[in-house]
Design goal:
This protein has 192 residues and is of the alpha+beta class. The chain folds into two domains: 1-37; 47-191, 2-Layer Sandwich (Muramoyl-pentapeptide Carboxypeptidase, domain 2). The protein has helices at 14-36, 73-82, 96-108, 124-133, 158-168; strands at 47-54, 60-67, 70-71, 115-119, 148-152, 172-176, 181-185, 190-191. It starts with 13 loop residues before the first helix and ends with a strand.
């Protein structure tokens, strides 16, 4: 049997042929996975909006934070203010991927209710305090990077919120039914 030829017309050696065949075989499942992935609930939207109610400060915010492919700086600043560390007043830029995750959760759960914020950004001092009081608080929580929030949504079952967040495979999901909230973040995919 003659050896297959490379795109340039040269005969491929056995090792090169096996490498290219193996590479193609490994690529096909990856491409198939992307082809089967559920399209984002945000696809096709001209605007993305969020509504928040901060349980600690009683502040409310309803804002369009993304319009036609652009994150809106003034809305992002308002979100950073409402999701600030309520203990210290410190603010941090919230990760846009987290905001998109929260927006997609609202769309998938078909609700216009504001997200009730238990915890958004945490300063290093606040995180250290909470870590000293609970083993459930990571030494370097993603809250400190603006990549996590603890939420609940009025009118939506907490278990359904958790299940929906898990189905998105967008980051970490922590379930705290006794405290009545779900943790979501845009770190690596994991659950607890």
């Amino acid at each position: 049997m003659p050896m297959p030829k490379s795109p340039s017309g040269f005969a491929l050696g056995r090792r090169s042929f096996l490498k290219s065949t193996l590479s193609a075989a490994l690529t096909i499942p990856v491409l198939a996975k992307f082809a089967e992935a559920e399209p984002s609930a945000l696809a096709g939207l001209e605007e993305r909006s969020l509504a928040f109610y901060n349980l600690h400060t009683s502040e409310r915010l309803k804002t369009v934070y993304w319009h036609r492919g652009e994150y809106l700086p003034s809305s992002m600043a308002e979100i950073n203010r409402v999701l600030r560390d309520h203990r210290t007043g410190d603010m941090h830029d919230m990760n846009p991927r987290l905001l998109d995750l929260l927006c997609e959760l609202r769309v998938k759960l078909d609700t216009a209710e504001p997200l009730h914020i238990i915890s958004g950004y945490r300063s290093p001092a606040t995180n250290a305090l909470l870590h000293s009081q609970s083993e459930g608080v990571a030494t370097h929580s993603l809250h400190m990077d603006g990549m996590a929030t603890d939420i609940r949504i009025p009118g939506r079952d907490l278990a359904l919120l958790r299940k929906t967040a898990l189905s998105m495979k967008a980051g970490g999901v922590g379930y705290y039914p006794s405290s009545d909230f779900v943790h979501v973040d845009v770190g690596r995919v994991r659950t607890w």
